[in-house]
Amino acid sequence: METARVKIAIRCNLCGEKFVLRGRRDKDRIDTGFKQCLCNNVDDFDIEELAL
Organism's domain of life (predicted)? Predict the structure, then answer.
């Protein structure tokens, strides 16, 4: 099974920090390895898929 490469923009809703990461799409899940923001936020994010 082949996984597609995607580019993701993640913005923290607590501090406003923005991260742009590359990851792999596997069915309906995207894995970037992102765990938490610099402000220790682990669940309150806006996630947007960008054109690669």
Answer: Bacteria
What are residue 25's DSSP bridge partners?
A: 4, 30
Q: Give the pTM.
A: 0.81
Number of domains in the chain: 1
Domain of residue 19: give its range: 4-50
Give dist(CA 15, CA 31) in Å, integer. Answer: 23
Tokens encoding 41: 């936020």
Mean pLDDT over each residue of the chain, to the nearest integer: 91
Contact (CB, 8 A) for 14 and 44: yes
